Amino acid sequence: MNEHISFGSVESLHNKVKDANRYYHAEQLFYVKPKLHGTNASIVVNGDRIYAQSRKNVLTTHNDNAGFANWVDTLIIKPGKRGITSVVYGEWAGSGIQKNDAVTMIGRKVFFVICIRIIDNDTGKQTVQHDPSQITDTIFEMGLFDHQYGIIVIPTIAEFDISLSGNVEHLGHVETAINLMVSAFETVDPYIKSEFNVEGPGEGIVAYPDTNDWLEYHNLMFKAKTVSHSVNKSKQAASAKVQISPDVQDFADRFATMQRFEQGITDLGIDVDMKNMGSFIKWVNTDIFKESKDEVEESELAWKECSRVITHNAKMWFMQEARRIT
Description:
- This protein is α+β, with helices and mostly antiparallel strands.
- It folds into two domains: 11-225, DNA ligase/mRNA capping enzyme (D-amino Acid Aminotransferase, Chain A, domain 1, 2-Layer Sandwich), CATH 3.30.470.30; 248-325.
- 37% of the residues lie in helices and 22% in strands.
- It contains eleven helices and twelve strands.
- It has helices spanning 13-20, 68-72, 132-142, 168-185, 190-196, 214-220, 248-255, 258-268, 277-291, 293-299, 303-325; strands spanning 11-12, 28-35, 39-46, 49-54, 58-59, 84-94, 109-120, 126-129, 151-153, 158-162, 204-209, 222-225.
- A hairpin with a 2-residue loop joins β3 and β4 (49-54).
- α7 (248-255) packs across α11, α8 (258-268) crosses α9 and α9 (277-291) packs across α11 (303-325).
């Protein structure tokens, strides 16, 4: 049976700063890559076993996500090295996968590669390749890199030296620089315009630390989304401080948003049908709980009360959408 090897979730800047405040974190180089509005996808190569994944599931040609597994099935991929599992993580994006963003207007589906996770099956050691040139070399070796297949390695578009446990002035400069960069994506995704000559809004950016250690890489990366893509109503795309909610209603209004509800339907791969409402509400609560742990703690709110209002809001939205569709 094929094992699902998750990329995991990407948190916000303030989550990373709060974690770093528990210990000293020296200044480190971070590379910025565009965040594309598609669906998380990956290819696992473990010896002769080669298979596709979505964010949370192993995919097959009969249990697919936006056609990704069926596309992977057409590729000619070399078997992996003995004792090594490689996971090529990326975003499956383009025509018909999402809507409104520039990447959805490029006229085809593309697997945009973010990084490659390498697992030593014997020792458990995990490393990562994140440099675009290194990723390109590895993809050539795997027999994957051919533009007729629709594979593009996401480039680095900026870099910052960041100390996540730095002083207020330093983190203020980091906030300003990232927010300025993200604001450009509100109207035109500069990467998609450059790559495909297509103009339209983008989702935002993700900052990745310059390290070859997978755990450090995953634990330190952070995202910053445009207002239209943010699943919570934050004052700005990137903030080094946790935004406090004065009460449960304000918290629920910030986190139980239409964007999150729509993401839930996409991630679950379900129809807006009353029989699916239970799994939808569970997903919403789980997703918000995971993302908002710092906000709940700093705001001194009881999660049980937050969940009650979130559940009500999610239920009302789901029922309204079900009536609209029928």
